[in-house]
Amino acid sequence: MSQTISNTDRTQSNAIDCLNISEKKVGLFVTCLVNTMRPSIGFASITLLEQAGCNVEVPELQSCCGQPAFNSGDDEGTRQIAYQTIKQFENFDYVVVPSGSCAAMIKKNFVEVFKDQPEWLARAQHLADITHELLSFLVDVCNFEPTGIELEGSYTYHDSCSGYRSLHVYEQPRKMLSKVKGLEHNPLNGHAECCGFGGTFCVKYSNISNEIVAEKIENVLATEADYLLGGDMGCLMNMAGKLNREGHKEIKALHTAEVLAGLAPQLSGGKDAS
Amino acid sequence: MNNQKSDMSRASIFSAIKNATPTITKDAETIQQEALEILKESEFARPKLSSDDATEALVLRIEAGLVIGTSCEKISALDDLPASVNQFLGKYSLPQELKVQGIDRLQKLNWQGISTDIDIQKDNTVGLCWAEYGIAETGSFVVHSSTEMPILLNFLPLYLIAVIPKSKILHYMDDYALIANEIAKKGETPRNMCLISGVSGTTDIEGVLVQGAHGPEILHIIILEDQ
Amino acid sequence: MQVNKPEDFYKNVSKALAQPDLKMIIRRTTDKAEKKRAEAIANFPEFENARMQGQKVKDHTIKYMDHYLAEFEKNALAQGAIVHWASTGEEATKIVLDICRQHKAKKVTRSKSMLGEEIGLTHAFDNSEIERIETDLAEHIIQLAGDPPSHIVWPAMHRSREDVVKLFREFHLDPTYSEEITDLVRSARRDLRTKFLTSDIGISGSNFLLADSGSTCTVTNEGNAELTITPPKVHIVTAGIEKLVPSMAHAVPLLRLLTRSATGAEITQYITFHNGPKRANDADGPEECHIVLVDNGRTKMLADGMEEMLRCIRCGACMNHCVVYKHIGGHAYGSVYPGPMGSVLTPHLDSLEVANKQTHACTLNGRCEEVCPVNIPLPKLIRSLRARSWQKKYEPLTNRFIVQAFAALAKRPRVFQLFCSCGVVFMKLFSRQGWIKYMPLTSGWTRNRDLIEPESKTFMQQYRKMKKAKSDGV
C-alpha cells in the first residue's frame, strides 16, 4: 500500500505535455464578470497566453459558467447553460479561464449535473479534463515566466477559495509575480480565508457577507501593500468595493494577469485597457 | 408495550438500511476481511514515538509536558513505593493519608504509618492505583474495573498516583486494542476499560484551562522496573 | 434566554450581528481552536494517512451498517446490557423516561452528548417530575442559565466569566466569592460531587459503538462521564446508529483524529469503554445498563445519498473554521448542530423546508471540507440540499425568479452578451469617478460596498472591434 496518501494533486498537474504548446489551440473562456466589469483581464489573459506561445481563440458564443444557477440548486438551469459551454469549447486542446471559481465550475461541477445523462456526462468530463485556470495553466502547462515587467511597490495576495481549494492554485501566481521587477510580496494574514463574496451569497446574506469582507480588508490594510492581487474578479470586486466604501484609496485591487501583462500602471476604474 | 415499539423500530431501521443499500453482499467473512484490511494502514497513520523503547517514549512524553497535570518517576522495586508516595505527599504538603487500592501487593507493603484507607468521597484526597497497562503514544495508563479496582478510585481523589509495571507499557493504542480483543476472546472483558491520559481538565470558562474539574488535579505516574 | 428557531434564521442572524461583543466571544474560542488544531496537525505528519484511514473505517461501517448493528446488539446483550431501538427522537426520549420512571428515579445525572440534545432529552426531563443534572461543566453553566448550547464542543462559549460568577453565586449551595476561573471550577466541583454520588440514574452518550464487543465508549476531558455512570444503579446510553465501528482497533484511528481536530490536543484525558452492567463482584458500577440505539433521520440520510455525512465524528472543526459561523455564532442557526455540519444535519432532523435558509448561508468556500478529519465533502452536500430545496420550491419566489431569468439569458449567448452590453450602459449612468455608490436593483451589493465602474464596452464588444480593425488593417 502507498505510504503517503495525499489529497492534493498540486504536483500531479505539472508537466502535462508542455511541449509543442504553440500547436495547441487554446480557447479563452472570458467569464461574465470579466466580460462586463473588467475586460482588461481578458486582454491581459490573451497577451500572457500569446507570450507563452499559445494559439488563443475567443469563441464569440459564450456566456456564463453557470455558477449562479448551480450554487442556487437549479440543476436544470445549470445544464441549459452548460450545454452551450460544452458545445463551444469541447473541440479546443485547452480551455483557459481567468477565474478560479469559473474554472472550478467547469472542471468539477459540470459533471455533477449530468449524472443521469451518460452522453453529456462524457462530454462534460472531457471539457473538465482540458479546462485550466489561467495562472496555473501558464506555469504548470506552459512553463511560462514573465519577462521585462516592472512594477514598483508591494503586493499582497488573496487566494480565492475555489482556486486554492478545488484547483490548488497557490504557488503559481506567486512564482510569476516574483519575476516582476520592483514588486515585493507582503503576505496576507488569512490569505486563503473566504472574502465573503460567495456569488449569490453576498446579496442573499448581504449582512453576513459585509462582516466577512470588513474583516478581510482589515487584514489587507494591515499588510500596507500597494496592490491587492488575486485571480478571481468576484473576490476582487468585493474587496475593492469594500475598501473604496471605507475610503481606502491607498491600495489598488488588480487581477494578477493585469500585473503580469504589464497593464497595472494605466488601470483605473471605468477606463478601457484595450 | 415499549418492547413492542422498540421491536418495530428495530425492524424499520433494518429494512430502511436494506432498502438504501440493496445490492451490497453481506457475507460476514468478506466483511471481516475488508475490516482487517483497513487496520493494516495503522502503521502509516499514527504518530512516530520519540523513542523505540515504549517506557522511554512514555517518560519523554510526560517530561515534555504533553500529558496534562502529570509527572512521573521510576522505581526499581515495589518496596520503594511507600517512600515515593511519602515524598509525593510531602511535595504537596498533604496529610499522611491516602486510599490504596485493595490489592494484596499494594496493601502488604510497609506503609510506615501512612494511613491507607481514607474515604475518597470527600474532596482533597489522594488515591493510589495499580494500572493494567501503560500506553506510550498517548501517555496513558489503563485501568480495568474489577473486584479489586473501583473505577471511582481514579476519578474522585484530587491527587492520583498510578503504578505501571514497565513490562506492561505498550507502544500504541492499537497494541492495547489487540490485548482487549484477546481478553474478549476469553470472555473476561471487564465492565470498564479506562484509558487515562492526564488529569481532569476543562476549558469551558473563557477557554482557560483548569485542572481538577471533577477528578484529579495532579497525577503522578510511577513506573515499576519489573524487567 | 429566548431560544431561536431554525425557521427564523434571517431574524436570528440580524440579532446576532447586532450583538456588539458576539464576535469577540466567538473568536475567543474558535481562533484558539483553529490555531491549536493547526499545531496538532503540523506535529502529526501522518495526518493525511490517518484521515484516509478514518474515512475508510467509517465508510466500511456505513456500507455494512445492518451487519454491524446486528453484531453490536448481539454482543451488547451478551455483556448483559439491554438494547432498545428508536426510530425517532421522541421514541428515544420516551424509552429513557420510561426506564427512569420504572426505577422511580428522582434525580438523573447526564454527561454531555450531542445526541441527547438532538433528541430533546433535556426538554423531556424539564417537562417531567425528574430532576436532570448536567455534569459537563459547560452544560452545567448553560443549564443554570437556561441557554441552548452554542457550540458542539464548547456549549457555553457564549457565557463570560462574569455570567458564570453570577450563575454560580445564585445556584451553588457553597459558592465561591472569588472571580478567579480556578475558584469557579472548584465551586462547580463541590456542587456536582454530591450530585454524582446521589444520582439515581446516569445518562451518557457514546462516541463509538464497538460492534465486535458490544461496548459503548465515552470520551471526555473532565472525567464527568465515568462519574455520571459509575455511582448510580442504572446507566442509560443513547447513541446514534452511525456511531458504529467494527472494533476497538477501528476506533483508534478515529480517536487520533477526533481530539486533534476538535481542540488541538493529541488525545482526551478520559477514554472509557463500557461493557454492560457491573460484574458479580465488581467494586462499583451500575447494576443495569440500557443502550438506546437511535435512528432519527440517519437511515433517511443513507437513502438520500447523504451517507458521507454519516462519517461525522462531531469534532466541530467545520464550525471553528467557518467564516459564517465565526460571525453569527451557534445560536443563530436555531438548531442543535450549527455551522456546516448543521447545514447538512438539520434538514434531516427537522425538515428541509424549515432549514433550507441555513443551507444557503454558506459561501461554499470549502474550508470545512479541508479541515474535516473524515473528508466529508460538506460543500457538495450543502449544494445538493439546495438542489433538493430548489426542486421542492422552498426558496423565496423572487430568488427563484432572478436565478431562472439569469439562466434563461445565459443559455442564449447572443442575448446574454446583449444583456451585458446594456448592463454596462446602465451602470455607466450611475458611475462617479470610477465607482458606483448606488444603483437600482443592486442594493444587496451597494448597501455595504461600492461597485467598480465597468469599462466603456464589454470585453466581447472591444474584442470584436479589435479583430475587425486587425483584419481591416491587413
From TrEMBL, chain A:
Residues 26-107, 155-239 form the Cysteine-rich domain. GO terms for molecular function: oxidoreductase activity. One of its GO terms (cellular component) is cytosol. InterPro entries: Cys_rich_dom (IPR004017). Pfam families: CCG. This is L-lactate dehydrogenase complex protein LldE. It comes from Neptunomonas qingdaonensis.
TrEMBL record, chain B:
InterPro entries: FTHF_cligase-like_sf, LUD_dom, NagB/RpiA_transferase-like. Gene3D superfamilies: NagB/RpiA/CoA transferase-like. Residues 19-224 form the LUD domain. Pfam families: LUD_dom. SUPFAM superfamilies: NagB/RpiA/CoA transferase-like (SSF100950). PANTHER family: LACTATE UTILIZATION PROTEIN C. This is L-lactate dehydrogenase complex protein LldG. It comes from Neptunomonas qingdaonensis. The lineage of its organism: Bacteria, Pseudomonadati, Pseudomonadota, Gammaproteobacteria, Oceanospirillales.
UniProtKB/TrEMBL annotation, chain C:
Residues 69-294 form the LUD domain. Gene3D superfamilies: Alpha-helical ferredoxin, NagB/RpiA/CoA transferase-like. It comes from Neptunomonas qingdaonensis. Residues 308-376 form the 4Fe-4S ferredoxin-type domain. Signal peptide: none annotated. Keywords: 4Fe-4S, Electron transport, Iron, Iron-sulfur, Metal-binding, Repeat, Transport. This is L-lactate dehydrogenase complex protein LldF. Pfam families: Fer4_8 (PF13183), LUD_dom (PF02589). One of its GO terms (biological process) is lactate metabolic process. InterPro entries: 4Fe4S_Fe-S-bd, FTHF_cligase-like_sf, Helical_ferredxn, LUD_dom, LutB/LldF, NagB/RpiA_transferase-like. GO terms for molecular function: 4 iron, 4 sulfur cluster binding.
